[in-house]
Amino acid sequence: MAGTDRGDLTRTAILALLGTVGPLSRTEIARELDLSPASVTQLTRELMGSGMLEELDLKPSRGGRPAQRLGLVGSAGRALGVKVTADHLVLVDVRLDGEVLGSWERPFDPAAPGCLDELGAAIASVLEEIDGAPPLLGVGVGVPGSVEDQAVGTVNAPTLGWQAMPVGDRLRRRLDLPVLVENDVNALAAAERLYGRGRTHRDFLVLTIGRGVGAAVVADGRVYRGARGGAGEFGHVPVAADGPVCGCGATGCLEAFVGAAGLAAAARAKGLPTGDPARVTEGAAIRELGRAAVHPGPAREVFADAATILGRATAGLVNVVDPEVVVVLGEGTAQWAHWSESFHATLRAHLLPGRRDIAVEVESWDDTSWAQGAAALVLATPFDAAGAAGEQGRLVRARLIGAAT
Q1: 354 lies in which domain range?
Q2: Least crowded by CB within 10 Å, which of 36, 64, 118, 136?
């Protein structure tokens, strides 16, 4: 298969488009993804040769030659996606066309001495349940931290207490499968490019709010990872010299104000009940705060204050990277109604004049979304012959071609 630029997701974007909207002609694919007809002809020929696409019926034409429609062979492969959090794992089984075949949740303690063995055992237990068709191409793992190289998978994640953790190496030895490891927000951006609103945009920004705050930049259809895989640590942009202490150890980070812990602390400062911090989870505290914010008062003020800070910081990021659209994701979007007004007002006020009409799209969310992003890491690699997946990508392609033939 012909090589591509680093991280190019265009081939998988074609697959995702067909999986989402159904069969299309080559002309329609070119129009939807803003590609040249020649590029679409070449790429779809490669995909058909790999058993990913098939020619279907002719589309009726009002005049001229009917167009041949192409359809996705969704059963060509599947991937297991794993989202690692500070207290549990979420795992999903996803087909090549993005259809979720199953989901699981497992308890997890990243601070335990044998945590990587525990992680491997949890994945292995799920793999035993999904054995069969479509063929399994590999495992993608999303983590709340930096990963210098997806194919190596060494993780630095302060929120998990991990420093230079050999996640990829240990899992590959345990599972005997290709394993790709990536920052969870970057993984979401890959999934958004393939299956979400980012499908028809080559330059967009993914913003996540919830327990933490993150961002991923997609430029020219590729997720920007930075020199050491740590691009997108938006939550650690300093926004105040004398602000609260962040989980990273610094003071005044964006996340310390607008992450779940920051919101809960702001609520307590206003005398609002959030439960015992030692016994009530941050998520439960924020859900309670959201219920209180339905009525005017201090709970609504907590969200408005955080949204103002977030809007200002987001404007700065938009001014720097100039995306076509901002996509907001994460568990925090459940309370977006309380963020929206202040966020939008502040964002527009701080954007450069030519960018004040930028679209902000807020997507629905559930706990499996993070894991779907992790699965997208694997589902993208068969079509990135020279990209970030490295040797693991070669192994994924070998499994895919072997299944197709």
Answers
A1: 202-362
A2: 64
